[in-house]
Amino acid sequence: MGWWPFRKKTPSTDTNDPILKDTRTWLAELRDACEMNFDQPEEARRLIRHMQVEWKEAMDRGDMAPSLREGLEGRAFRLLNCTDKEWLGWLDNLNFWKAGWKPGMDDEDEA
Question: Taking the mean position of all CA atoms in its chain, how far away is CA 58?
């Protein structure tokens, strides 16, 4: 009998995951880390620094476009260098979390 539903599957030799994260997924991960720690900006900043390493590795593997990393790094720069008061402003800024946001787009609105 060649068919048995409970047999163990052989592990795949292909380690390349064909499913890559898209822009919204990377943004959602960054935003989730920030919002989960909205009252602990330093913890969120630690997570952001860890994410920056992941972004570099993803780009080195070819899993992330340079323009996507540039956008994520622009957001990370703002979040890492802002005061705790400004922190909440960035978290509440809906345009900041939209795909396609570029540094400088909302600078006029900050005043």
Answer: 11
Q: Amino acid letter at 53? A: V
Length of the chain: 111
pTM score above 0.70 = yes
The residue extents of the domains of the chain are: 23-98
Phi first, then psi: what are they for 34, rounded to 5°? -70, -45
Tell me how far apart the alpha carbons of residues 55 and 68 are, in angstroms, rounded to a whole number: 9
Helix, strand, coil abundance in the chain, percent, nearest 5: 60, 0, 40
Q: How far is CA 102 from CA 18, 74, 96, in A?
A: 28, 7, 8
Report the sign of the C-alpha dihedral through residues 67, 69, 72, 75, in that order.
Answer: negative
Please write the tens of the pLDDT for every residue from 45-74: 999 999 999 999 999 999 999 999 999 999
